[in-house]
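Minutes, project check-in
Item: structure for the 154-residue chain
Input as provided by the requester:
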Amino acid sequence: MDYALTIPNEYKISGLQSLSAGAPVAAFQGAQGKQVLRRAMSAILPPETAAETKQGFSAPDDNWYRGPNMGYIEEILLDDRTLSRCWFNRTMIREVVAEHFAGRANHRLLIWSLLCFEWLQRVLIDATPADLTPGLATSVVSSDASRAAGGTPP
């Protein structure tokens, strides 16, 4: 399966493009999944780690989005900035969050996807190129999480 991603110049990671462009085509021929990365890292990774099968990542359990984290979910997904995006249906987002919080439905995967998409928007689209420094996502997430917990941003 082939994938393509176009990244504006101001967002490119310095040196990564030239490093991958200089790799011999033979290194990628017949490679599946993460084999190229595994081969590249084989001198660094312990053999048992390099031989591990691919593991999926699942969204947090449905109760993670209830209780103490409800305020965080509301702060991000029901925020005017989120709801004003042209690709979000604000009524649907409000209904999904309300149904999940009330326990009438388990929307954990959709909520997780919406959160991830919104954070990508905030970190990569809303931010200016000057803002894109290592640790930006961490500082943005910790600031919003701190506000949700009633604290002040670091």
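Outcome recorded: The mean pLDDT is 73.
No further action items on this chain.
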